[in-house]
């Protein structure tokens, strides 16, 4: 078989999520198409999606609050699943905050039909015939949650620019889910959720 | 029925865990009997233990890395489950690090039989006829994980003193599990794991 030489792009429409399979060793980028948009990224072992990228196990391994280029993300079974290989954005990514969910929007006074990253995740998994009895904590790419010296968190608008991309290498065969965060009541997306893209990069790159 | 006027103490032997039921409104303390000992605390809704105290949902609500007296802990369904009502310890508690597990000890070169907080949790739940398909991130009481201004974490020995206690009020009927962390290869327990106690306080207090 010839190597795959074209980028395989999956557009993630605003307020929705998409799932892609990424073979071990391949690189995959999450691209902020219009800028200022948070993506909730989830990763699962392809052969058993109950094994998932875990923020708390990753922190235990990297001894850092936030991801840095060259560092790995680990699963709840402490196996490496992704490596952060490059980042053209200003480098603000969150690994502290839960995915938004229907309960979050109910508390904010939204309609029950408001989209959420948690619901998006489960819908995207279902599109592959997969199901999960829980929602892991995501890695929130482009999400700007600074922490001050007292340990207080702030929620600020994303500063990623149009076309900014964060790129991971798959350290195992995995299922990657990216939700273009529908949050429009807290100002992390500048008030207007927009779309993202998932680019699985050529083998030859 | 007369009110319960005595403390109901459950000793948690070193390297083990115990589970107790705590009715809504009751207060419960985790006591460091000998000092310098980390406790991994898990809390679950009594009527459905898949609903659990979630560190990431708690951070989303409190906007703080670490718990403070007067603040609540929330479940993965964003309901309050515990309130931190008092603390006689120096106040160092962790809400960033995953429970230790067999994979952690394998990586540290320990024997396969080494106890872990994750295994302890599931064994303690099983003693109540309960089971869970995942291990939530615990609140690690007395665990000293400082974060510097660059977001780097350090792992330091606990500084809690003999008899120090952290006290919670149950905001719903819940199952509380406390594991006396068996970590003896990383110096968070001063090298020698010791026992804790769970005190369910009198109704009249």
UniProtKB/TrEMBL annotation, chains A, B:
* Record-linked InterPro entries: DUF1989
A Pfam match: DUF1989
Q: Where is the DUF1989 domain?
A: 11-175
The protein's name? DUF1989 domain-containing protein
